[in-house]
Amino acid sequence: MFERKLKALGYMEWDKVNGNNTQHFRKVILWLEDQKIRHYKIEDRKQLRNITSPEWPNVFEKYCNDVKCPITKNEAGQLEWFIGYAIWLEFGDDCKKYQQIVGSKAKVKNEVKIPNIKSTNPLDNLDFDNDAFTTGVNSIAKLLKVPKHSDHLVTLQACSKLVCNKLNADAIKQSNNVVSVKGKPLTAMTIVPSFNMGDIMLDNAAKGLSLLYIQDLRNLQTKINETIVAVQNITANPKTDTKLGKVGK
């Protein structure tokens, strides 16, 4: 998952990085600090360079606090954050190289004054980056058997979708009518039409977009069917006033 980003940054062994390997993890962190982030002075990186030291985790924890990395106790998530941070710094160092400026002068937009509205919704006052909130989200994900993402807010979105689609009132009422299906389970990547663009990551991304598109079409068709049924209920049972009718001439 890190290969393309590391290749873009110029990491020589970008295709050999294993996010689950501790030495690979430490080596990449050190390279990012030396070449891209450069938060410490050269002489202050001595302890960070000793990647085989048993004290390295403590040194890295201090380093995370110094650069204000929001992710803790998740090496894969931390590595993803540091790589993204390095890319952001790389862009900032030479943004003109990556930007296409349209026109000779940039248009200055007038600042819109946004009124300060005090919300009475208690959810607006929650600290979504609080450790207790993160722990609660992970507990809910574990209960619902939802895979955890490095960003707990993404995990929360996945839990929300599962609850809305599978645990709503209608789904619970129909739970006894569900027929168990026996057979070999198939993954989403197996049942969708195959793509062959010469890159397995691009193929999987295309399959994912195809699934999302099919889901949108299904939701649209469901809404259309509900609209048709609602109209039929009105037109198929019209209310008439027989007193207004005339018999004979």
Secondary structure: helix percent: 40-55%
Poorly predicted parts: 101-112
Q: What average pLDDT do the residues reach?
A: 77
Outline, from the CA principal axes? Answer: elongated
Topology pattern, helix = H, strand = E? HHHHHHHHHHH
> Main β-sheet: number of strands, strand sense, barrel status?
none
If helices are DSSP runs of H or I spanning 4 or more residues, what is the number of helices? 11
Structural class: mainly alpha
- Evaluate the radius of gyration: 28 Å
InterPro entries: RTRAF (IPR019265)
Pfam families: RLL
Protein name: UPF0568 protein C14orf166-like protein
Please give the structural blueprint.
Blueprint lengths: L2 H7 L12 H16 L8 H4 L6 H12 L7 H19 L1 H4 L32 H14 L7 H15 L2 H5 L14 H4 L8 H36 L14
Helix pairs in contact: 2-5, 7-8
Task: Write structural notes for this entry.
Pfam families: RLL. InterPro entries: RTRAF. The chain is mainly α. The chain has three domains: 95 residues, no CATH class; 43 residues, no CATH class; 50 residues. The chain contains eleven helices and no strands. About 5% of the residues have low confidence.
Summarize the entry for a quick read.
The protein has helices at residues 3-9, 22-37, 46-49, 56-67, 75-93, 95-98, 131-144, 152-166, 169-173, 188-191, 200-235.
Keywords:
UPF0568 protein C14orf166-like protein; 0% strand; single chain; elongated; 249 residues; mainly alpha; RTRAF
